[in-house]
């Protein structure tokens, strides 16, 4: 269940205020930090992350909510940033790969497990897989092999790294239980 | 994507006031998994987008006197993980499971699933619901492998809804609000086959919002079987949802509804007749599957879908009755 | 002449180890910057206007409104009035603007009038393509007519395999600036860092020395990213027009899917003749393929079993109004493997013979009989062939039918022309520099492993610098030649540098330079750890001098040096289950046995094979370009309908690399392509084995499977 949202929408108008179609100032909470940015209502969260905030870990691949390369966490749940309007992401906790992959200067167990199991080749889909895997493991700390496959059904890879990804997620589950970086 | 105004009202009343009298005036945004792509492709270019996700009254799944109420904003994931739904409406649980991307399950909403536009590639390329180009019937003359095998013409797309067939089978009511009040529509009547590219494939007006769905809990055994090529995110080639009222070991009455085979969920009275009065066995289920597709009229490339639809009906019946094939 | 040969397998300390890729953390953490991730100050964004018609002539084009659009810096027309356009989604004009939104909005304001011309976009039915087919002329070997008369069994079949799209996840494009001093800074997504400089220089008519190319990472290429392309050139021209501001121009997905690379199709009617006991005596084929408007795409058939004594071959290239082909991971080999192996298993079925036996019985018709015999047997063992194979169609009751099938592959490989430079600094740091690129194969990592092996160091002691034209020229990453090339040049450069270092430290160790060795972080007198200097102490003897030595791999000299070589075989066996009520094919397992030469990093080498097999699964079961007859456009140019396997769709994959002393002595052979060849054939044959009939058309979608089962031809 999404928590009730109490924040005021951006802009000076009060609800049911109408914003745009020109650019409006908004504040996004990204990786725990408020970020002010001016966007048109039609800009996606992905394009704002990549073009305006230089957060390029999320990639633009299918741009139609199919491939998962743009995966981010919104209030802890994995979603496709290409299919969220930036203006609609106000007031939510947005976590990108940059927010946790190397937090504290150490690779997150999921990142390390992806490297250990060579779960990447060209690497373009990889940050999206890592984000999806993190969300999956946060919700399913003791997954079976079958559950891992279900949990990553929303991401695609062209180089064919799925064998490594399956192993990596299982390894990360163990590492995270060990409390190494949980 | 064309520019648009954006509003994010907190109440249904405010939201309704922000909609217009024409489809081009405003679009309702919930999960966005369909609308954002449609706007990127400029298949839809509303002047205003009304985000309804902050309207609390549209959320939640609960038990009511009339049945289980599923708010328009309940996510696919909430439907999938609802014990209430699993206990009495497994046909919906299975339909939710078929949405095999966690991202889509987290974003996509129940109401959005019912209102999503067809995936027909001609529609998505801007040729309209009826898909005509220079007088030619693009679907009939072109690549129709994923198109309708029932109810063909003039629309030939297939209803994309995952939950639609189950709701029709279960006799659900769809509640719709407009500035002038609310109305309730039978799920079966909610989906319509459009006769022109200017109208919608669901019974909604531009100034209306689907608010919730009430699914009666009748004790009918129910199940959904989706046939998809991929286990990962993919659209079904055919779906069947069934609801069976049993009398002893025999089926007293049945609702058999096919999905992804027609511009609407397709009710098969033939299949229901074939199974009624009989116990569900591999043989009777197979016969019902055959009956379900006896009147199918496939296009040039999709005769294979007739076979798949028959298999889906058979499997859904067996699943509902708890019979192993 | 220094000794460059690889150390003996048993004595290697870094090569041959399963090390993590060195850029793994950077990539998995999202920090790696691909060219499509680059944001530069003052950067403009580009957008591409494409033609909606498959065949048309541009009558007029009016860019005035677009130029006036707020934020637009320039419009560059590449299809001026009079231009004939031969495929839909062909580029017409490009716009650069302050934002992506402005660039895209401006595109809509460009007014183009077209004269629409007739098109042909389908080639599967040769009768319908009329004069678009060009026959290549008959090729005859032996006496096919006589062989046909004498054959005890003749099997005939029709087979087709479609056009596929490269679908690189990072789209094609670049960031480029062309400044008023006539210098070009170019950040393309490319498989060819070194050679794309010259290509760009020619396109822009500037001296090659004025073009600087830099790329850290590439998000997939698969053979489609060698050239600057029209969009790269256009971005440069838009930059120049904007006074040198950088322009970022990458294709949007629905354009990328159409024009940025595809694999040719292949169709054939094939007749195979054999003796009663299964010796193949005859091959006859009537084949055709399209590679786009200019034709192209000729599969080398019969494949692997090339020495069938009597052959008659007729091939036609079909010109269609579709986007041009580009090199594809093992160009034309998948098609040839499918056509040949499918025909062979159909022959086996007609002979009522186990196809494994047929493939084995005829290995003398291949260029590597011993290799294929060994591999067929190994693959059969790993796939439990004896236990699981059954005569075609004899798969029991029930709707789930299991089957096994065989595919074979061959490839060249070897090493491309590559120069590496090794710098040893007085503080002990080591750099290895090459104008190469890491496609995800682990190029950086294997370079470091080779350098560390040569210098007696660890991989973390080596700084690998690639992806820049300031480094020595290195070949394009195509044909599985990168690892062979860069490992050999790195080996030579590091040995050359080490030889210099020995000369510098010889006096201090009181031994001739030729008597020194680099072992475990030390320079020592051979076999005498007591007379040694640490690496750091040895390098300190350089004073202020940096050693900088190069080494080159020259393909024509490589065979005698023994560092790399070409020519491999491989066998894939697939195990599938087909639901005959729905036509859905599920992978149970696929086994890949691959001949591979010297393996520098088994972990990344195995990844290549896993990836190649998964690509084969996509190609066998899901992928195809779907064209619309009426509009002439591609219908599935979004990834939602251009289906790729997900993590749940691949079954189990068993990789067996033939890593052993004998293979190792051959030197490094590329591995990217060969295992990507035979999987499609293996899966197709497994499906036929399961359901008892041949599904002639790949991919084996539910449509094609059920059509075959029901005797419908689609």
Describe this structure in words.
Chain A is of the alpha+beta class and about 180 residues long. Chain A is built from six helices and six strands, in the order βββαβββααααα. Helices cover about 30% and strands about 15% of the residues of chain A. The longest helix of chain A is centred in the last third of the chain and has 16 residues, at about 160-175. The radius of gyration of chain A is 17 Å and the shape is elongated. The model of chain A is unreliable at about 1-15 (pLDDT under 50). In chain B, α12 (about 270-275) runs antiparallel to α13 (about 280-295) and α13 packs antiparallel against α14 (about 305-320). Chain B is globular, with a radius of gyration of 19 Å. Chain B starts with a strand and ends with a helix. The mean pLDDT of chain B is about 95. Chain C has about 725 residues and is of the alpha+beta class. Chain C is flat. Chains in contact: A-B, A-C, B-C. Chains A and C meet through α1, α3, α4, α5 and α6 of A and α1 and α16 of C. β1 (about 20) of chain A pairs antiparallel with β1 of chain B, so a sheet runs across the interface.
Key terms for this structure?
heterotrimer, B: 325 residues, alpha+beta, 4-stranded antiparallel beta sheet, 14 helices, globular, C: 714 residues, 7-stranded mixed beta sheet, 6-stranded mixed beta sheet, 19 helices, 26% strand, flat
What is the averaged pLDDT score of chain B? Answer: 97
- Compute the gyration radius of chain C: what is it? 28 Å
Mean pLDDT across residues of chain C: 97
Strand content of chain B: 15-25%
Oligomeric state of the chains in view: heterotrimer
How many DSSP helices of chain C?
19
- Give the H and E element order of chain B: EHEHEEEHHHHHHEEHHEEHEEEEEHHH
Helix content class of chain C: 25-40%
> Largest sheet of chain B at a glance?
5 strands, antiparallel
The largest sheet of chain B has its strands arranged as 4-5-10-8-9
Number of strands of chain B: 14
Q: State the end-to-end CA separation of chain B.
A: 49 Å
Strand line-up in the sheet with most strands of chain C: 3-5-1-14-11-12-13
Helix content of chain B: 25-40%
* Secondary-structure content class of chain C: alpha+beta
Per the principal axes of the C-alpha atoms, what is the gross shape of chain C?
Answer: flat
């Amino acid at each position: 269940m999404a928590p009730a949202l109490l924040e005021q929408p951006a802009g000076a108008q009060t609800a049911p205020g109408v914003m745009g179609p020109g650019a409006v100032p908004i504040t996004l909470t990204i990786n725990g930090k408020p970020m002010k940015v001016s966007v048109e209502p039609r800009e996606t969260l992905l394009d704002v992350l990549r073009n305006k905030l230089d957060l390029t870990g999320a990639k633009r691949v299918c741009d139609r909510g199919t491939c998962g390369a743009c995966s981010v966490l919104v209030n802890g749940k994995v979603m496709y940033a290409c299919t969220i309007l930036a203006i609609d992401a106000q007031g939510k906790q947005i976590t990108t790969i940059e927010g946790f992959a190397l937090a504290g200067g150490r690779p997150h167990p999921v990142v390390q497990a992806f490297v250990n199991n060579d779960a990447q080749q060209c690497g373009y889909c990889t940050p999206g897989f890592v984000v999806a895997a993190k969300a999956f493991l946060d919700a399913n700390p003791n997954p079976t092999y079958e559950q891992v496959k279900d949990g990553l059904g929303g991401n695609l890879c062209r180089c064919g790294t799925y064998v490594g990804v399956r192993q990596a997620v299982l390894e990360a589950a163990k590492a995270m239980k060990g409390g190494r970086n949980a | 994507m064309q520019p648009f105004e954006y509003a994010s009202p907190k109440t249904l009343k405010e939201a309704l006031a922000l909609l217009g009298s024409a489809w081009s005036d405003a679009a309702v945004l919930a999960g966005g998994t369909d609308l954002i792509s449609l706007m990127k492709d400029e298949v839809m270019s509303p002047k205003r987008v009304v985000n309804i996700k902050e309207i609390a009254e549209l959320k939640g799944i609960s038990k009511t006197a009339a049945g289980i109420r599923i708010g328009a904003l309940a996510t696919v994931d909430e439907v999938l993980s609802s014990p209430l739904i699993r206990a009495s409406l497994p046909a919906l649980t299975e339909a939710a499971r078929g949405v095999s991307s966690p991202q889509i399950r987290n974003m996509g909403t129940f109401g959005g699933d019912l209102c999503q536009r067809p995936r027909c590639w001609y529609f998505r390329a801007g040729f309209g619901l009826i898909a005509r180009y220079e007088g030619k019937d693009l679907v009939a003359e072109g690549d129709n492998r994923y198109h309708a095998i029932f109810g063909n013409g003039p629309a030939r797309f297939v209803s994309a809804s995952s939950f639609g067939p189950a709701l029709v089978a279960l006799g659900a009511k769809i509640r719709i609000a407009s500035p002038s009040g609310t109305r309730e529509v039978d799920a079966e009547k909610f989906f319509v086959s459009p006769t022109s590219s200017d109208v919608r494939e669901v019974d909604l007006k531009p100034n209306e919002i689907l608010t919730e769905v009430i699914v009666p809990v009748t004790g009918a055994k129910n199940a959904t079987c989706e046939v998809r090529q991929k286990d990962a995110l993919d659209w079904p080639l055919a779906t069947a949802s069934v609801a069976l009222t049993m009398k002893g070991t025999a089926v007293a009455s049945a609702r058999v509804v096919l999905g992804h085979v027609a511009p609407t969920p397709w009710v098969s009275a033939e299949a229901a007749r074939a199974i009624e009065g009989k116990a569900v066995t591999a043989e009777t289920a197979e016969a019902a599957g055959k009956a379900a597709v006896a009147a199918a009229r496939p296009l040039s490339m999709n005769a294979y879908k007739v076979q798949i639809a028959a298999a889906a009906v058979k499997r859904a019946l067996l699943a509902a009755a708890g019979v192993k094939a | 002449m220094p000794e460059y040969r690889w150390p003996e397998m048993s004595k290697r300390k870094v090569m041959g180890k399963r090390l993590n890729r060195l850029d793994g953390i950077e990539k998995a953490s999202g920090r790696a910057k691909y060219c499509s991730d680059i944001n530069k100050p003052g950067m403009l964004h580009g957008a591409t206007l494409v033609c909606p018609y498959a065949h048309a002539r541009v009558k007029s084009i009016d860019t005035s409104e677009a130029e006036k659009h707020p934020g637009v810096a320039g419009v560059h027309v590449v299809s001026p009035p009079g231009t004939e356009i031969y495929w839909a989604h062909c580029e017409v004009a490009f716009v650069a603007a302050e934002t992506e939104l402005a660039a895209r909005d401006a595109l809509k304001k460009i007014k183009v009038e077209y004269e629409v011309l007739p098109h042909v976009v389908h080639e599967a039915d040769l009768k319908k393509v009329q004069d678009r087919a060009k026959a290549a002329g008959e090729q005859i070997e032996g006496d096919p007519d006589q062989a046909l008369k004498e054959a005890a069994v003749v099997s005939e079949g029709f087979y087709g395999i479609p056009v596929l799209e490269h679908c690189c996840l990072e789209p094609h494009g670049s960031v480029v600036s062309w400044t008023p001093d006539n210098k070009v800074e170019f950040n393309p997504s490319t498989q060819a860092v070194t050679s794309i400089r010259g290509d760009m220089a020619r396109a822009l008519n500037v001296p090659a020395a004025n073009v600087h190319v830099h790329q850290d990472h590439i998000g997939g290429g698969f053979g489609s990213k060698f050239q600057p392309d029209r969009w790269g050139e256009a971005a440069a021209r838009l930059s120049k027009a904007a006074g040198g501001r950088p322009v970022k121009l990458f294709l949007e997905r629905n354009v990328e899917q159409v024009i940025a690379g595809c694999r040719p199709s292949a169709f054939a009617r094939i007749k195979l003749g054999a003796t009663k006991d299964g010796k193949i005596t005859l091959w006859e084929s009537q084949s055709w393929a399209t590679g786009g408007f200019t034709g192209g795409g000729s599969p080398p058939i019969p494949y692997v079993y090339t020495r069938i004594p009597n052959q008659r071959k007729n091939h036609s290239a079909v010109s269609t109004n579709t986007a041009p082909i580009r090199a594809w991971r093992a160009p034309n080999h998948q098609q040839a493997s499918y056509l040949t192996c499918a025909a062979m298993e159909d022959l086996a079925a007609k002979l009522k013979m186990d196809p494994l036996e047929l493939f084995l019985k005829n290995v003398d018709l291949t260029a590597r009989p011993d290799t294929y015999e060994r591999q067929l047997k190994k693959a059969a063992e790993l796939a439990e062939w004896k236990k699981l194979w059954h005569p075609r169609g004899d798969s029991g009751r029930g709707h789930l039918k299991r089957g096994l099938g065989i595919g074979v592959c061959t490839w060249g490989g070897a090493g491309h022309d590559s120069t590496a430079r090794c710098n040893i600094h007085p503080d002990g740091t080591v750099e290895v520099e090459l104008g190469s690129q890491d496609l995800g194969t682990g190029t950086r990592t294997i370079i470091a492993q080779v350098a560390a092996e040569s210098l007696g160091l660890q991989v973390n002691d080596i700084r690998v610098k690639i992806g820049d034209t300031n480094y020595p020229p290195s070949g394009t990453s195509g044909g599985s030649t990168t690892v062979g090339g860069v490992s050999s040049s790195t080996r030579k450069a590091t040995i050359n540098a080490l030889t210099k270092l020995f000369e510098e430290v010889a006096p201090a160790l009181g031994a001739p330079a030729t008597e020194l060795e680099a072992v475990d972080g030390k320079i020592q007198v051979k076999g005498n750890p007591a007379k040694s200097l640490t690496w750091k102490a040895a390098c300190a003897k350089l004073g202020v001098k940096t050693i900088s030595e190069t080494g080159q791999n020259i393909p024509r000299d490589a065979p005698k040096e023994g560092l790399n070589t070409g020519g491999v075989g491989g066998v894939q066996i697939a195990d599938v289950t087909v639901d005959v009520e729905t036509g859905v094919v599920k992978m149970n397992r696929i086994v890949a046995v691959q001949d591979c030469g010297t393996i520098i990093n088994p972990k990344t080498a195995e990844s290549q094979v896993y990836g190649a097999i998964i690509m084969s699964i996509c190609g066998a079961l899901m992928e195809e370009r779907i064209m619309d007859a009426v509009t002439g456009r591609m219908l599935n140019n979004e990834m939602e309908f251009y289906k790729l396997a997900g993590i749940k769709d691949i079954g189990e994959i068993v990789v067996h690399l033939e890593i052993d002393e004998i293979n190792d002595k051959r030197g490094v052979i590329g591995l990217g392509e060969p295992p990507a060849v035979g999987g499609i054939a293996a899966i197709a044959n497994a499906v036929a084995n399961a359901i008892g009939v041949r599904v002639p058309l790949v991919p084996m979608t539910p449509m094609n499977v059920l059509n075959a089962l029901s005797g419908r031809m689609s």
